Amino acid sequence: MKMGDKLAVLRDENIDVPPAASMNTRLVAGAVTAGIEPVEKGFYSDTVEMVNGKPKRNVTWVVKGDATAHFKPDFEEEKIDFNEFQKRWNSTEWQVENPHHPISFMAEMFRKHSAFVDKIKTMEPMMLIRKNGRTAIVPSGDSPEDVEARNEILARF
Fold first, then answer.
1. Which of 57, 79, 111, 114 is most buried, with most CB under 10 Å away?
2. Backbone phi and psi for residue 90, each to the nearest 5 degrees, phi listed first
């Protein structure tokens, strides 16, 4: 990110569903499929903060706010049966040859969503800590690397 970049921020605050099940995760998958670019660093964050003795979870997605989606319909109106729909859905080759067709777009969106979900499932939420007007986001895991990073950040905090 550079100074002056426009950002679009999607936030699920104190969510009751896992981040992978959030509608924002689906929205971002669709936007990225359509050409909206995520920011390079900090595209996704998942934090837990203790507020009044209760955990508050926030999941945030950040995309480039001035990025644009370009839709270029390039196919004739048609009616197809389920067998043809399935054939196209399962054919990456057909989708590459017909990138603007709705079947190609839908299939790519599901691939992107699945990739986001697979990645999210491997990540632990970060701890968000506020103290004296300052904020720290620290790893919450128990791995030696997470513990070391957490201790280093908190020692400076």
1. 57
2. -90, 0
- Segments forming the whole domain that contains residue 135: 124-157
**Residues 66 and 108 reside in one and the same domain:** yes
Candidates 45, 55, 51, 34; CA nearest to 10 is 45
Query: Residue 89 has which token pair?
Result: 């859905």
CA 16 to chain centre: 17
Q: How many CB atoms lie within 10 A of CB 157?
A: 12
> What is the token pair recorded at 152?
């280093």
pTM of the shown model: 0.81
Look up residue 128 and give its two tokens: 């968000």
Q: How far, rounded to the nearest angstrom, does the alpha carbon of residue 134 sit from its chain's CA centroid?
A: 26
Specify if 2 maps to a domain.
Answer: no
The DSSP bridge pattern shows strands 44-51 and 54-64 to be: antiparallel
